[in-house]
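User: quick one
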Amino acid sequence: AQKITQTQPGMFVQEKEAVTLDCTYDTSDPSYGLFWYKQPSSGEMIFLIYQGSYDQQNATEGRYSLNFQKARKSANLVISASQLGDSAMYFCAMRDKGAGGTSYGKLTFGQGTILTVHP
Amino acid sequence: DGGITQSPKYLFRKEGQNVTLSCEQNLNHDAMYWYRQDPGQGLRLIYYSQIVNDFQKGDIAEGYSVSREKKESFPLTVTSAQKNPTAFYLCASSRGLGWNQPQHFGDGTRLSIL
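Assistant: Done. Structure below.
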């Protein structure tokens, strides 16, 4: 089974509107971290926001917020007031102990969602 | 400015040749990682290192080798045994291996076969 699932290959949003990018995850580890990254066409991976499995409140960083629903194992990224510069690929990723349960060394990435912001 | 520097930005490999991708960080991070990204895909872990002189295989280590002689540096060698090396390679670092530690990435190296 996929550990990180992003079901939206592509999303479109009008400038200044809000958009939600979906992410569901699968782990049996009680301690895990969820991360969102932005990858513009130039290729670099930009860290946006983090949510820990024990965090009671949803994470927020500027225009980014994370809608964390632990029971549903979902961690959706909400971008408010979209800007043209938000057009990029967005990846959801998780850090847990993985197979063997010995290390948190790996980030497991989803397949990504391409966001296009229209003027 | 603190950050992760990858070089070169573009690299071409001939058949049967080994090539080395450079990754240097000045963030004073203990852990470093190498990922491979194929077009339209997420990232897959090649190798990671928690401390100097120690490294672990990731999911797709075959055909690759690494070294960690200095805290700041984690070079990746793509050997001739890697039959499909064309990809985008990203180096990352984090303070440690904790589950709450974000990884920060360099700008990547694009490797192609000549």
